[in-house]
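Example record for the data management plan.
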Amino acid sequence: MKISVYNAIDEMRKLTKEKKPFSFSFMSCSESTQESHGIVEVAKAKLGRSDRVEHNHNADIMLNYIDLSNGEQHRMYQPLLMLFNGNAVELT
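Corresponding structural encoding:
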């Protein structure tokens, strides 16, 4: 089954609010180093607080999350989301 990136993010927000974890994967990308380290798979996560920091001009397309396997906070670019709970994600 395929899901739009917007629906996937809405579902992530819903599950986080319900305190239920979810899984997802995305293509890594570092704007500062212009590098990718391939696909990142997160087996159990919840969303973190969004930061609308003025120095991050991409804050509106970033997704903050907490990897529940180690408690670490990370962020990713929303358009690079590939899978959500086993469903392919489309940019539509």
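Summary line stored alongside the record: The radius of gyration is 13 Å.
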